[in-house]
Structures are given as C-alpha cells and as structure tokens.
C-alpha cells in the first residue's frame, strides 16, 4: 500500500475514533443529566409534631396543597412534602389554642412560585375547626367533625367523611365531597363543578354555580327540593315533599343540575 494512502487511512481512523469517543462521552454526559433528573431519589418529607391543645386551624397559602386528616388528641402532626425542588413554606403562629399557618410555595432559590405541587399534610384532633384560603392551591379535609370553611381562586376543594357544618367557595376550582355527614352544606362556585354525596341526610344542602354543573346525591328519603337552571339540563330523582325537613337547593345559570337518591 502506498505510504501516502497508509497515512491518510491512519489519519481517518484516528479522527473517527476521536469523534466516536466524543459522541459517546456526550451521550454519557447527557444520559447522566437526564438520569439525574428522572432517577434521582425524591426529596424526603419532613415530619414533626407540636404537643399543644388545638381547637381551630387557619391556613392561608398561594399554591401547592394542604391536606388535613384526623390525628391524635392534644397535638398537631406536620408532614412537609417537597416536590421538584419546591417547598410550601409555612409560618406557624399559635394564638392560644388556635393555629395559624400562612405562607407560599417557593423554589430552591426562595422565589415565590404559583405553579407548585409541594404541600403539607396535617393531622389534628377530630373536632378541630378548619378555615382555609388559597389562590391556586388545592385543599382537602378528611374525617373531621368540626366546622369546615374553605375558599379558593382556582384550586380544587375536596371533602371526605366530614361531619361538621361546611362552607365552600371557589371561582374556577371544582368541589368534590364524598361520604358527608354534615347537617349543613353551603357551596358556591363560578365555573367550577360541584359533586357532593351524603352518607347521612343533611338538614340543608345549598349549592349555587354560574356555569358549573351540580350533582347532589343523598340517602333515600323525602326532601324539600329546589333545582333550577336557566340553560342547563335538570334532573331530579329524589322524592319530594313540601313538608319534609331536609332541604336540597341547587341553582345554576347555565350548568346542569342533578339531584339523586342513592
């Protein structure tokens, strides 16, 4: 083989090998970056408790989520759940037996963020009252017997097995409630849907929406019913009686309205 051809061939092999190594190296580095994001262990939850009498918890957040569940007596258990480098940063203030939690969701640089999946889980005594407000965060209360009042801008509100009086207000967030034993429920939304199911007959369930749909499901029995919608569909399968004590009131401008027994 001519010497010039050998040199050119050797040069080509050397350059090709270097390029291959460079590409593999870039792939490995890129793979590591991707793997670091996808496979890195999730940030650990932070758990702590306060041994303190509590009768009411007030929550005010911008985004993220707060879940409140039944815990032990004479204490509040906290679980802070970071997500994607974000934390829900809450300030804790005690006013006698009332706990006030206020704060916002922040990124790793401490900057306030509005789109956030980080949150808190609280465990409180069953009879604790809850008052919560959020801009775009989601709120959930489960198992409590105390009064519950929740307000949101675009966040969703959820109740499960709650036994105290309930007042819910949202703009575009949805309302979902299951296995309710509340004697009194008032819910109001603008565009959000309301879906409520009672495990025990309420004395009064009053729901109002602008464009959101309404669905109320109650145990079998007779109820005083009022179901109105201007341009939506109306469906009432609950036996009605003007003399009945339990009252169901549902009104929407353009949303569908359904009252069902089940």
UniProtKB/TrEMBL annotation:
Residues in DUF4097 domain copies: 113-259
UniProt keyword annotations, A-Z: Membrane, Transmembrane, Transmembrane helix
Record-annotated membrane-spanning stretches: 12-34
Ranges of biased composition (kind: Polar residues): 242-255
Signal peptide residue numbers: none
Region named Disordered: 224-262
The protein's name in its UniProt record: DUF4097 family beta strand repeat protein
Domain of life: Bacteria
């Amino acid at each position: 083989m001519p010497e010039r051809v050998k040199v050119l061939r050797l040069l080509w092999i050397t350059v090709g090998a270097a390029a291959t190594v460079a590409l593999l190296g870039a792939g490995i580095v890129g793979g590591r970056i991707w793997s670091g994001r996808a496979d890195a262990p999730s940030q650990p939850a932070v758990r702590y408790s306060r041994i303190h009498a509590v009768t009411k918890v007030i929550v005010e957040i911008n985004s993220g989520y707060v879940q409140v569940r039944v815990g032990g007596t004479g204490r509040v258990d906290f679980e802070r759940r970071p997500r994607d480098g974000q934390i829900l940063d809450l300030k804790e203030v005690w006013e006698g037996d009332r706990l006030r939690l206020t704060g916002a969701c922040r990124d790793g640089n401490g900057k306030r963020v509005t789109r956030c999946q980080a949150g808190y889980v609280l465990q409180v005594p069953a009879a604790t009252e809850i008052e919560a407000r959020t801009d775009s965060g989601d709120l959930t209360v489960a198992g409590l017997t105390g009064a519950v009042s929740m307000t949101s801008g675009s966040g969703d509100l959820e109740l499960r097995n709650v036994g105290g009086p309930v007042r819910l207000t949202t703009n575009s967030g949805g309302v979902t409630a299951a296995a309710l034993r509340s004697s009194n429920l008032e819910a109001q939304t603008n565009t959000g849907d309301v879906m409520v199911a009672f495990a025990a007959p309420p004395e009064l369930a009053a729901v109002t929406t602008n464009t959101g749909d309404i669905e109320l499901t109650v145990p079998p029995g007779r109820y005083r019913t009022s179901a109105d919608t201007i341009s939506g569909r109306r469906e009432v399968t609950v036996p009605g009686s003007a003399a009945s004590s339990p009252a169901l009131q549902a009104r929407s401008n353009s949303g569908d309205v359904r009252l069902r027994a089940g």
